[in-house]
Design goal:
globular, mainly beta, six-stranded mixed beta sheet, 10 strands, four-stranded antiparallel beta sheet
Amino acid sequence: QLQLVESGGGLVRPGGSLRLSCAASGFPLDDYAVGWFRQAPGKEREAISCIDSSDGSTHYTDSVKGRFTISKDNVKHTVYLQMNNLKPEDTAVYYCATQFVCVGASPDKNDYWGQGTQVTVSS
């Protein structure tokens, strides 16, 4: 079965850290760019980070730049999102998805999405 599986979410206090994992099953993740997205209650889903397959270049939306780091382990077919200095506004369901490239593209009907993992930042 071809799928992405996220893990690593949870409840953390403001200023804390979490590391999310996005593991591919059944296909070689190194052929794809992989993006992280999040959706907070009542809000649109937003793209927050992406890593390209060709050169490993990374991309971040302004709200997470300097706090989040995306990385990839091609041997383990896993993409990580290290999240530091978490804020209450980071609370959301986080998803990973494949896409063709990071810039100028977004996941389409041929791409894979994970099931999502909840991140809650609260004191």
